[in-house]
């Protein structure tokens, strides 16, 4: 029984990691109508920020706290300089984010020398729950993911800013006619999505080490998760991230990891074929 519970915890913790990464991508895709293909590199930048703080003698916690701020500001600058000019051409915007991501990834590769760099867990060891030893840091990741989901939900549903965001999502022209600065909303939304990716990167780097391609795997999983869950709502990508995360963690227990990744994508493709709008979908109006 203990081994089963241990396995269930490992599956839950990996699903939490995927959901944490997907949150920022889902916010941008739902709000702005574009898939940010630099989101994986925002995860990488968060991981690199945490590493820089640690390598300069600062506590890793300081890097984890700094990562969402630093990456959020980078996202804001990129949105103001590049992305905002391409809203009318979503395909071009996606290609632009891909190019930005490539520049970021190769820059980090040059800075790290293409190496895998280990970063220690801020909280080491395990926590004994009902006689089962659970990784303390993975438990923290699960708790942080749940807390961030709850905080995002409250921000979008219980604040005036959330009301303006939802108004811009549902009908951008009407929101502008009502005096809402949709340009500001889009900028803040993009920066917020980047900040969430930065936080995710800083949280997961102790588990996966720092390397230039860290964000690529999670970008692909995040893209699939948004398609499965459905863009246009906050809950859709979260639900999709949970489904993809659970499948990605569960299947390797039964089949080889390489085949498991292929099977996850195959299942997602079949699902999207028969339900193209995802598990949860909302058709917003943005222009």
For the report, how would you describe the main beta sheet?
Answer: 2 strands, antiparallel
N-end to C-end Cα span: 54 Å
Major β-sheet strand ordering: 1-2
- Overall geometry: globular
The total of helices stands at 11
Number of strands: 2
**Residue share in helix:** over 70%
Compute the CA-based radius of gyration: 19 Å
What fraction of the residues are assigned to beta strands by DSSP? under 5%
Taken in chain order, the helices and strands follow as HHHHEEHHHHHHH
Count of discrete structural domains:
1
List keywords for this structure.
about 290 residues; mainly alpha; two-stranded antiparallel sheet; about 75% helix; globular; disordered C terminus
Task: Produce the secondary structure layout.
Blueprint: H1 2-32, H2 39-55, H3 60-81, H4 90-112, E1 126-129, E2 132-135, H5 136-158, H6 160-170, H7 172-177, H8 182-208, H9 214-229, H10 235-250, H11 257-274
Structure overview:
The chain has 287 residues and is an all-alpha fold. It has one domain (2-214). Helices cover 73% and strands 3% of the residues. The chain has 11 helices and 2 strands; from the N terminus they run H-H-H-H-E-E-H-H-H-H-H-H-H. It has helices spanning 2-32, 39-55, 60-81, 90-112, 136-158, 160-170, 172-177, 182-208, 214-229, 235-250, 257-274, and strands at residues 126-129, 132-135. The chain has a two-stranded antiparallel ribbon. Helix 1 crosses helix 9 (214-229) and helix 2 crosses helix 8. The N and C termini lie far apart (54 Å).
